[in-house]
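Q: How would the structure tokens look for this protein?
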Amino acid sequence: MMVFNHVVVVSSSTPSCLGLSFFGRKWLCGRGSMRHLAEYAGCAIVTGGSNGIGSACVKSLVERRQMKVYNLDLTPPSTNRDMYEQHGVEFLCTNMGCEESVKQSIQQIIAREKRIHVLVNNVGIQPKSTCVPLHTLSSEAWDNVLRVNLNSMFYASKYVIQNMLDSSHQREGNESRSCTGSNGVIINMASVQGVLSQPGVPAYAASKGAMLSLTRQMALEYGPQSIRVVAVNPGTVETPLVKSLIEGAGKSMKDAGSVYPYEKRVGQPEEVGNVVAFLTTPDASFITGSHVDVDGGICVKGGWNT
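A: Here is the predicted structure in token form.
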């Protein structure tokens, strides 16, 4: 993912991205939903939902929660494209590092669906060029990681929480809460790098640690309004981003998994996506302000090199 300074992204292969919906191989403007929201359990937004863990979150929310899901990302989905056609999932091309782009996409969703029940702040980057000691990291590279990983969480949460706090929704009473058991759920995709760390990832570790701290603060701030905020900490998960970093270091996914206590393997995206889906259910209604480690036991072990 690259961050641009403008809101509308245009390339030779796609039309203007802001506010467009992606179904299979067609770009559609307008509502484009296959079903009315009343036929869904609720409305969810997943940022960075086109690949890896984000794509798995979209899939789990659709299949396990029967939710109307919007994927806010800069690039169209590379997998599960039939799900967009069959289940009404919509892709909105959004520069998550740009507040105005995020604001416009969320406002478009609210105009269509009125109510947002779930936000999954998943988008994140870890460019190979940033995997260096802090004293050699450029300020531009640092800012880029924090802009996408942390600022995007602030932008999306800011505009979604405004919708969740809308008194007109809360007047609907228990019916409006039945989808999540609350007035809304925000899931922040942090990382075990926010709890543990290792050399050569200063910007990424800082962004994930900040996400965990902000998760706790938001849970305290909005708990009285029945909004739950939870973080998920994946360990090493086999995604395109992680695979490229590991193979770029001359190692294999099997090598990466060998240090994990559970089955000596890395995780799979769906193992994280399924946890996210559970956390949005009424069964998780007393979980807030904490983090769930989906890490194969690496935190219990104390790190990768112990």
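Residues 74 and 274 are 24 Å apart (CA to CA).

Residues 139-164 form the longest helix (26 residues).

Upvote if useful.
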